[in-house]
Structures are given as structure tokens and as C-alpha cells.
């Protein structure tokens, strides 16, 4: 069993006009039998009108959502029933500079938002959070909405940490000490997330894992680094399935998550530690933020 904090499948099937039940991408319901919780992101590419694109994405989710297979996660009590599906926005540009549109997203079932994607928006830029962005973080705290710091600049990350009174997640980010890409987290940032009892999801995109072709061992290498920093209670997966054009060798999609978990099982980690990484930490983090 495993849980995953980030995939872009809804956006992919919106564009490809395919089904969530079965498609030729990385994730579909037929291949999710071992998944207990999947965060589904609605990705807002800058080429679209942000709010309109979000509405298209959320409408697509409800068009393909099937309660026979998935349980939409709206609060902590929804976890543990079937495979959980939690809706997220990847890119705060979707709310177009208004708290009202953030509240609309919440009303439509969104429970997590990545503050920014690549490039600036009304919430954040390379210099950190804007005044509006700071007000959004406070509002998300009030709404018990999950704050995702993946994609933020270093300054933006620390602005969030200074403001939030809730734990945060980096849904799909790796270790900069092992792979120097700016999308990855520094050791100090990892420790900040550990200290706030947040969550870090390992990203499977090869460019964030190593130089050249990546393997499952590279995912494990980043996991071990976070564990060495004290991250046993915050570490999990944030694959970025359907959001990347390449994956590590031996991973074609969600059906190959067993290739990842089997490799982790070869380590000296106890079964309790493995269960935390595979699904426990993400489920517990989600419950912690969404509980009434």
C-alpha cells in the first residue's frame, strides 16, 4: 500500500480527452489498486486564463469521478474509505488575486494549493510572497487548507514558514544536497518542514534526482538523506506522475510503484518505518490539517 502527494492526471485527461478509469498516461483507476490516497492536482499553465482553466479542470474531475472507486477527501473523517482522492491546485494564479476565488475553490472540494508554479503570480515571485500572498497563507490557515511550498523560491519558502501557524507540505520536492536543481529543498528547509511536522513527497522526475538517467536507487538515495536529517515522520512520495515527460528506469506509471517499495524493503528500515514512508506520513499529515 502507498500514498502519493502529487499527480497531474486530471489536467492530462482534460487535454487528451481520456478517461480517469483507464488511459495511456501514468495514472488511472484500474492501476490504483494499491493506492490508499492520491492527491490530484489541477495544473494551471500560464498560457491559459488561470481561473477559467481551474474551472475546466475541476469540472473535468467531477465528470470522471466515480464513487464506486474513489472517495473525495473533504475532511479528516473521509480518509480510510476506499482510495482517497484529494483535490489540489498547482499554481495560485488560479485565484486571480482574490480571496473569494480561493473560497470558491474550497467550496468545489479543493483542500490544498501550491502557492506558485514556475514564474511569478499574484502570490509570490523570486523575491518571496507578495502582500496578497501573505494574506492568502493566513486565510488558508483559517480554512484548514493545506499549503504546498513546492516550486517556491527560497525566499518565498521562508516567508511562508514565518507566517503559517499550520504545518506545510512540499508535495513533490527532493534534496538539493544530492541534486543541485533549485526546485529541490536545502537541508535547512528540510529541517524546517521536519520541525513543523509537515510532509515532503519524493519527486520521481529524473532531473530532480540526479544527472543523467535515474533509477529507483536514486529515489531511495534522496529518501535516505531526508531520513538521516530526522525525517522519518514527514517523508513520503510525490511522484509528479502525468506531470513529467520522463521517469526513472523501471517506472512506467503508478502500476510500477511496487518496484519502488520493494527496493525500500531491501534497506534496514523497520516495517513500521516503511509503513510511515509508504502511506502513513501522508495520511497522518492530511488528517492533521483537515480535522475540524
Which characteristics define this entry?
9 helices; 36% helix; alpha/beta; six-stranded parallel β-sheet; three-stranded parallel β-sheet; 292 residues; TIM Barrel; 11 strands
Provide the fold topology.
Elements: E1 2-7, H1 9-16, E2 35-43, H2 50-64, E3 70-72, E4 83-90, H3 99-107, E5 110-114, E6 124-125, E7 128-129, H4 131-143, E8 146-148, H5 154-163, E9 169-170, H6 187-195, E10 199-202, H7 216-228, E11 235-237, H8 257-265, H9 271-290
Task: Report on this structure.
By secondary structure, the chain is α/β, with parallel strands linked by helices. It has a single domain, classed as TIM Barrel (Alpha-Beta Barrel), CATH 3.20.20.140. Helix content is 36%, strand content 16%. It contains 9 helices and 11 strands. Strands 1, 2, 3, 4, 5 and 8 form a 6-stranded parallel beta sheet that branches. Strands 9-10-11 form a 3-stranded parallel beta sheet. Strands 6-7 form a two-stranded antiparallel ribbon. Helix 1 links the parallel strand 1 and strand 2 (35-43). Helix 1 (9-16) crosses helix 2 and helix 7 packs across helix 8 (257-265). The longest helix is centred in the C-terminal third of the chain and has 20 residues, at 271-290. The chain starts with a strand and ends with a helix.
* CATH architecture grouping: Alpha-Beta Barrel
If helices are DSSP runs of H or I spanning 4 or more residues, what is the number of helices? 9
Can you identify the CATH class? Alpha Beta
Helix content bin: 25-40%
What number of structural domains do the residues give? Answer: 1
CATH topology: TIM Barrel
In percent, how much strand structure appears in the residues? 15-25%
Quote the distance from N terminus to C terminus: 27 Å
Structural class: alpha/beta
The named CATH superfamily: Metal-dependent hydrolases
| Low-confidence blocks of residues | none
Shape: globular
Largest sheet: 6 strands, parallel
**SSE order, as H and E?**
EHEHEEHEEEHEHEHEHEHH
According to DSSP, the number of beta strands is: 11
Compute the gyration radius: what is it? Answer: 17 Å
